[in-house]
Amino acid sequence: MGAAAGREIHDLEHERFLEEVHSFEFWFQSVEGYLAGTTYGHRTETADESPTGAVERQRLITVLSNYCIGEMAALEGASGLIAIAPNQLTKIFLSTQVADEGRHLEVLLHRMRELGVKHPAQEADRRASRSLKQFRAELLKLVQGRDWEAAIFAQNVILESLEFAVFRAHAEGADAITKEVLEGIIKDERRHIGFGENELGRRLHGAPHIRTRLTRVREELDHLVLSMLEDSSREIGVPPDQQGELARSYLQSVERLGFT
Questions:
Q1: Fewer CB atoms near the end CB (10 Å): N or C, the chain?
Q2: Strand, helix or coil at 39?
Q3: Tens digit of each residue's pLDDT (9 = 90 or more) over 132-185
């Protein structure tokens, strides 16, 4: 069962704590609790309250298309980062993240099929926003360039925090099935963000050149992130006067690392 079963995990020494939370054993325990009894991310007995109006249904399909491309970016990013990860613990954690992202992509594509989309992967690529596609390209460029800190920052802090904020806001007003799917994904995003913050927090301590590099990466990606936030807010129906709250939710993770 791992150390967490016999004692409070946060009482462990730092290195032992990292070994525990980055492990497949911890991952198995984490996902079992909320995946048990579900099929493609939701319970089979959950009532289907999908939008019946054509406009609302198409809007949801477009939203899910963007989510699919975001999860594809995270899947490709995490899998590529395994090769350049600095130690075994991070390689193991990223292996669990690859499994998470693959499952997220699968359940979102299946949700599109439930809404009547015959070829969800092709439809997702066709409908996804230009800003999101460009962000995906920039992320993969950092991974291919073996820029460990910048790639982790772009993926596990910027992208994951953006998805966490948008998914949480969407889940509040979503139909029952979409809500369950998103709430399951959100639980994984918390783990991914925590890993990114912990990894970069340790590296930023006493290393000003890394902070300078990541500040430049954020400046290069900011316009894409703001565009994605604006598009997402509109698509999921966030009122204009509440869109600032969505942006603040995203910014919290970035600010925790000292980027304002």
A1: C
A2: strand
A3: 999 999 999 999 999 999 999 999 999 999 999 999 999 999 999 999 999 999
Fold of 13-256: Ferritin (1.20.1260)
Where do the structural domains in the chain lie, given as residue ranges? Answer: 13-256
pTM: predicted TM-score of the whole model, two decimal places: 0.88
**DSSP secondary structure letter of residue 53:** S
Cα-based distances in Å from 81 to 77, 127, 137, 151, 194: 6, 27, 15, 8, 17
Chain centroid to Cα 60, Å, comes to 19
DSSP-H helix ranges across 115-159? 120-127, 130-144, 148-152
Q: Quick: pLDDT tens for 185-243.
A: 999 998 999 899 989 988 888 788 899 999 999 999 999 998 998 888 888 988 877 77
Backbone angles phi and psi of 37, in degrees to 5? 80, 10
